[in-house]
Amino acid sequence: MDVKLPNLGEGADSGTVVNLLVQVGDSIVRDQPIMELENEKAVASIPSTAEGVVSKIFVAVGDRLSVGQRILSVAGTAGAPVEQASPEKEAPSSTRSRSDSEPAVSGVIQELGDGEGSGLPVAAAPSLRKLASELGIDLRRVRGSERGGRIVLKDVRAYIEGLQHRVFVEKRQTTPTPAAPAAQKSVDFSKWGPVKLQPLTPLRQVISRRMTENWTTIPHVTQYDEADVTALLELRKAHAARYQEKGARLTLTSFAIKALARVLKLHPIFNASLDESGNQIVLKDYIHIGIAVDTEAGLMVPVIRDADRKNLLELSVELEALASKARDRKVSSEDLQGGTFTISNQGGIGGAHFTPIVNKPEVAILGLGRGAIKPVVKGGQIVVKTMLPIAVSYDHRVIDGGTAARFTVDLVKAFEEFAESEVTGI
Question: What are the tens digits of pLDDT across the range 42-77?
Fold first, then answer.
């Protein structure tokens, strides 16, 4: 029995093998991890869909696999002896007669020389012969699967699928491959001096593809403002040690998640998605906040689910755990899915305002810069405050400028009037 790459989840159809966890001769059981696959910003374990003894492996580390492609074959049952075959890498799809996801036609169609059969009546029910006649099908070309070669309806169906497959293959083989656009032509930069080539990692390719799609398909507008976080930082300083004792780091991002969840309740359009095919807006009754995490491999966005139902301590603990998993490339595909709004906090790195790109299918994203001590006017007096740069990018197909301005005003207010009870009530 072959074990093939299963469906990988939302928006993912392929991945790169980063680790094989079994070898030929190993006994495996159903749901046992057999390899690790890098896909859609995550490294996920792929479980076996069968049990037995590994008889052949078709992939190697570094291979790129698509859903439905063979990973390995198993024989017998777990613990049974098996012939020790050497791992064999599956031939690229371009050199195979068909892909594993295409229907097999071998044994479905009877090959007749000049259309001559044996002269004997076809073994099939009268109703089936009538149906074949109406469809213009020569039953002498259909291989029967029942005893004595008797043809049944499923054989006719398989025959038709086989014919369709032949047409598909012939069309694909005769259709010329379109030439690459001129913009994709490589430039020989070495003509002007020494260069080094650094291949894009699978993760960077995913980021590149998604950022291009997000930027080109969403009409972006960014609303800028600043929030006085002087009092909030004093709260953090006063209670950081208590949170540390409970195994949590009380960070500005923790406060931001809590404040944002409250404001999204007031402005549910920012927690929505646009269903382009149905021309409708999907308003969600749940708030799942994605957190952009800067890793050595690239940007990842794990999701904190039901952020509005968790207190500051729970958010702080989960935030730290997800960020660590992302940096260690241990975050799962499930951890990266289902977000309704994203926060990108560059404050720990530096910089002020920037324009974050909306993470489709979300309709808005919050960018936070580094807080800076500034003289500001409060109550007619010039005072020194720590001001936090805020940038809210949004999909202008769904959200209007006035709505975005009101959202940003409420968000600034949530930062500036953060209740101490939210910090102590844990």
Answer: 667 788 888 899 999 999 888 888 888 899 999 865
Counting every residue, how long is the chain? 426
Distance (Å, whole) CA 90 – CA 244: 51
Q: What would the CATH number be for the domain defined by 219-424?
A: 3.30.559.10
- Among 69-73, 107-111, 401-405, the minimum mean pLDDT is found in 107-111
Let me know if 165 is a catalytic residue. no
Multiple choice CATH, 2-95, 3.30.70.270, 3.90.470.10, 3.40.1440.60, 2.40.50.100: 2.40.50.100
> Catalytic pick from 165, 220, 353, 396?
396
pLDDT of the residue at 328:
84
Q: What is the 3-state secondary structure (H, E, C) of 261-330?
A: HHHHHHCHHHHCEEECCCCEEECCCCCCEEECEEECCEEECCEECCHHHCCHHHHHHHHHHHHHHHHCCC
Q: How far apart are CA 156 and CA 375, in angstroms?
A: 82
Task: Please give the pLDDT value at position 236.
Answer: 95
Per-residue tokens: 144? 């029967």
Query: What confidence score (pLDDT) does residue 118 get?
Result: 47
Q: Give the pTM.
A: 0.64
Q: What is the mean pLDDT of the chain?
A: 83
Q: Enumerate the CATH 3.30.559.10 domain ranges in the chain, comma separated.
A: 219-424
CATH 2.40.50.100 residue ranges in the chain? 2-95
Domain 126-171, CATH? 4.10.320.10
Instruction: Please name the amino acid found at residue 64.
Output: R
Q: What integer is the mean pLDDT of 339-361?
A: 93
pLDDT at 306 over 90: yes
Where in the chain do CATH 4.10.320.10 domains reside?
126-171
